[in-house]
Amino acid sequence: MQSLRTPDERFANLPGYHFAPHYLQVDDTEGGELRLHYLDEGAADAPVVLLLHGEPSWCYLYRKMIPLLVAAGYRVIAPDLIGFGRSDKPSQRSDYTYQRHVDWIRALLLQLELTGMTLVCQDWGGLIGLRLVAEHPERFARVVAANTMLPTGDHHPGEAFLKWREFSQTVPVFPTGMIIQRSVTCTLPPEVIAAYDAPFPDESYKEGARQFPTLVPATPDDPAAPANRKAWESLVKFDKPFLTAFSDKDPITAGGDKVLRKLIPGCAGQPHTTIENGGHFLQEDQGEALARVVIAFMRNS
Fold first, then answer.
1. pLDDT for residue 179
2. Long-range contacts of 40-45, Cβ-Cβ distance < 8 Å, separation of 24 or more
3. Most buried residue, 37, 135, 174, 190, by CB count within 10 Å?
């Protein structure tokens, strides 16, 4: 598998981002390896919070939350999905599959020997993270799901998602930073938009970002649908604390929180919340508020 690696200088002096990079190697499933980047902040023996980002962001999305979580006494692990951030970027669209994304993050959990984790997931962070919770429930202590879901393709994905998927496949230049801007309620400074563009020096680096919308199971016969249905067989038995913290202004995932609360036993009796004035990327709009929700949940469950 051929891959690209974004030059380190692209990540220098990004606003609000002063974290040391960490790397490990994951199997590319074709006889080679890919370098996966992650942040590791806080005491090594502290309870772990796993922050999983989505499309087309990277761990920069969590920069407002990480200091608060560390100050509260937690160890934060925040990887960049393969194809994003400082992680390697396979150069062919066909290199990216749902299963490979799950396996690449699984490798992170196994290599770092992470247990007792609290998963915080948004967007594709949930599509990957909830699969891992279902397949390795013993490694997770609790879950916070924010603007995410685990689709099986058995229900209509919604017009907002279909419009997004069409846009992602037809726009000549995939405008990463502006996609973030259009999906938040706040006005981002130019330097923050540039930070979201930083991982992608040109279009050749964006094959993973382009491919992600096509990998969401949107029909019952999608290749990933059987694995997600199997994951739900586990999730409907998951009785550890599970919290939904969706925002109030996200047309993509609106209503997903109600489905999770209905189906997952661990949701019963939890202080589910709606975070006000947050768009799809609520970590950008209301990162501090989401961090406070996570901290209170961990302390009380």
1. 97
2. 40/75, 40/76, 40/77, 41/66, 41/69, 41/70, 41/75, 41/76, 41/78, 42/69, 42/70, 42/73, 42/74, 42/75, 42/76, 43/73, 43/75, 44/75, 45/75
3. 37
